[in-house]
Amino acid sequence: MRKKTHLGRRNFLKTSVFGMFGAGMATKTGWAQEKESTQEQSKEIKDKTQPKIKGYRILGRTGFKVSDLAIGYIQDEGLMSAMLDAGANYIDTAESYPGAHSTISKVIKGRDRKSLFITTKMLMEGDTSKEGLIKRVQKALQELDTEYVDCMMMHMPDKIEMLKNEAFHAAMQELKSEGRIRFVGVTHHGSFWLRGPEETMEKILLAAADDGRFDVFLFAYNFLKMDQSEKVLEACKEKNIGAVLMKSTPVFKYYVIKSRLEKLEKEGKDIHPLYKEGLKRYKDKFDKAEQFVKKYGLQNPDEIREAAIRFVLNNPLVNTVCCSLNTYDEMERILPLSGSKLSDWDKAKLAAYKESCGELYCRHACGLCEPRCPQGVPVNTIMRYFHYFTAQGREKEAMLQYAAIPGERADSCHECQGYCEEACHYNVPIQGMLLLAHNQLSMV
Q1: How many CB atoms lie within 10 A of CB 25?
Q2: Which residue from 90, 229, 244, 320 has the least number of CB within 10 angstroms?
Q3: Successive 10-residue mean pLDDT values, the chain, 444 residues
Q4: Domain residue ranges of the chain, discontinuous segments joined by +
Q5: CA quadruple 206, 122, 109, 322: dihedral, nearest 10
Q6: 56-249+307-337 carries CATH number 3.90.550.10
């Protein structure tokens, strides 16, 4: 059930009710005329109060003019429709997102299909023969109820060699010739360590740029994670590849983890000594972060989140930023950021946040600590699932994916001396965060 209400919708309902009980109710004809007039007035009010997309950028070699704010993971049909009404025209989805294709099919029905750029993604798992991949694309088209997708992406390849999968490229070429897909892309936001010593996001995407057959990249980039990503952005510019971003607002965990810590302390559960030590190291960082929050009088993460979005939009090499939204209030805060500039005050807030809270963020697509883990815990993957749970409202999905991890999970971190923290280049208290992630994702 939606807890927060869209301002435009409130105005619409208020105006409609007023008109219904006005003088136009005297006759059917008068009622019809009054209803039509009320609808026109409501539309005018809605148009004035509803924020709109103001920025559009060319998506690399596709030549498509995309909105600078894109539709990421949104489950609510009304919310997605409102984003489209506001001018967003890039939709990101995947065959592995539960029910996402069906939701999109309902929302785009009756809209000008050529005005939208729809991207979906396939993991290179299951049937990866040419025929199998073609069938999977056909299924996606059927679920989306569209004749074509604008971009079909290879989703999170583990190794550079996967980029050269000839069955994949043969399937994509055939589908292109049939008009079923227009472009091909690749995504990456970190490795899954249990599958072996994978290459980094940077190496894989730079190899994809050199390959020449990928038109659009979707990858992680934010004000706390720039090192690998900026090289990828430069490659996109050089090769005229579309640059789409995700994981651009690394700020929610402070607030979510704060409530979780308080709950654990209040419950007073018997916790393993190493768990307590890991949490203590985490809490030392947390206390430092809380000083920053109090100093700047911040009431919620939206204030930093908005500056974080402006930061990535301030980079001219970025084409669009995927936004995962759960409420209309979130949408109303994000839409005015379209076409906006990064202010000096934004820069100051982000710099202070990085100094005070940056050590609470396990960098997406990093994985530098994983080779040091004697248990082979897939740190990057677990923290990504934790991000889905805490930042995107995908609790059930995150818990199911965490439960499906083969081999060791974060519960084994109870018996460890913290090799991951010793290896972390960013001084993140990752052992404590992994233990919290396990506590949250397994609901123990």
Answers
A1: 13
A2: 229
A3: 39 31 36 45 51 97 98 94 98 92 96 98 93 97 97 93 96 98 91 58 94 96 87 97 92 61 66 54 64 64 84 97 92 95 87 78 80 85 83 81 85 81 84 82 73
A4: 7-49, 56-249+307-337, 253-300+367-441
A5: -40
A6: no
